[in-house]
């Protein structure tokens, strides 16, 4: 059979194109892979490891210290001002009794005092924050988890976010719906049980429940010595470390509830209001 000239020409062209596709000669360099997804550019970057139970706090500016219209500030909160803090991870909740118990059972962390005021000695408070911790206890616990204590600047960044506010939730005075304060019961509460008072980043119990150790050495004049400093780490030395966040023993509306409030204690102090929240570099 003799084919029509136009039909034969079309068949020859189709055959040539098919052969070129089989050899891949004209396949584009960024062709999709067999899954149908664009493989994208090659990269040697490792995937981001997110520590269990933590939230990523983006880097940015935060107002550290006394707000300009806050009349309850102590001298050690001045001068207030903007500082830059790099991205980091921080625990969504304060460390619980159950979490700290695992560290004790691993032979790394020390027992707290055998006292009814210390939650580790109570079988009914496994989901409460561990308390009666010294700075040394807190540091050992975070290191056991492959983490560290947050700096004071990181703590304020996580509590305040991008807002100029007195408390993690805003400017309204504390209530039992916002924080575990002394009028809500003479004890701690399960971590994360008062979520209306979360910080802008969704961090629970940054006011109330237990106070939290930070990594920094403490100095009353440190804010005036580090104005405008990026990622401030605290003084190079000292006899005490910083403590942030008020506790279940503090009355609502008392100035200690404010984000900028600064406290300190000896690293071996084990007062019943001291607990821990861990952090890590991004």
UniProtKB/TrEMBL annotation:
Pfam families in the record, alphabetically? FGE-sulfatase (PF03781)
- The Enzyme Commission number assigned here is 2.7.11.1
Gene3D superfamilies per record: paralog of FGE (formylglycine-generating enzyme)
Under InterPro entries, the record lists: CTDL_fold, Sulfatase_Mod_Factor_Kinase, SUMF_dom, SUMF_sf
GO terms assigned for molecular function:
formylglycine-generating oxidase activity; protein serine/threonine kinase activity
The superkingdom listed in its UniProt entry is Bacteria
Where is each Sulfatase-modifying factor enzyme-like domain found?
Answer: 54-280
The signal peptide annotation in the UniProt record is: 1-21
Q: Which UniProt keywords are present, listed alphabetically?
A: Kinase, Signal, Transferase
Q: Where is this region: Disordered?
A: 225-269
Tell me the protein's name: Serine/threonine-protein kinase pkn1
Origin organism is: Enhygromyxa salina
Its gene name is: pkn1_15
């Amino acid at each position: 059979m003799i084919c029509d000239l136009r039909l034969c020409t079309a068949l020859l062209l189709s055959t040539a194109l098919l052969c070129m596709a089989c050899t891949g000669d004209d396949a584009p360099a960024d062709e999709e892979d067999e899954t149908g997804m664009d493989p994208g550019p090659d990269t040697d970057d490792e995937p981001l490891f997110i520590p269990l139970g933590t939230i990523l706090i983006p880097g940015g500016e935060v107002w550290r210290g006394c707000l300009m219209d806050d009349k309850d500030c102590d001298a050690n909160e001045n001068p207030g001002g903007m500082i830059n803090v790099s991205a980091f991870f921080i625990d969504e909740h304060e460390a619980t009794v159950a979490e700290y118990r695992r560290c004790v059972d691993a032979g790394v962390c020390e027992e707290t005092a055998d006292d009814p005021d210390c939650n580790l000695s109570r079988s009914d408070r496994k989901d409460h924050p561990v308390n009666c911790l010294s700075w040394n206890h807190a540091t050992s616990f975070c290191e056991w988890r492959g983490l560290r204590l947050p700096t004071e600047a990181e703590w304020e960044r996580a509590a305040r976010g991008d807002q100029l506010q007195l408390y993690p939730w805003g400017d309204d005075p504390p209530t039992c719906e916002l924080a575990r304060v002394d009028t809500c019961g003479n004890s701690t509460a399960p971590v994360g049980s008062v979520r209306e008072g979360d910080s802008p980043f969704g961090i629970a119990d940054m006011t109330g429940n237990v106070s939290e150790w930070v990594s920094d050495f403490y100095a009353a004049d440190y804010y005036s010595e580090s104005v405008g400093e990026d990622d401030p780490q605290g003084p190079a030395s000292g006899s005490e470390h910083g403590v942030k966040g008020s506790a279940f023993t503090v009355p609502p509306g008392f100035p200690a509830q404010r984000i900028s409030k600064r406290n300190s204690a000896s690293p071996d102090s084990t007062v019943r209001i001291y607990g821990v929240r861990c952090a890590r570099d991004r």
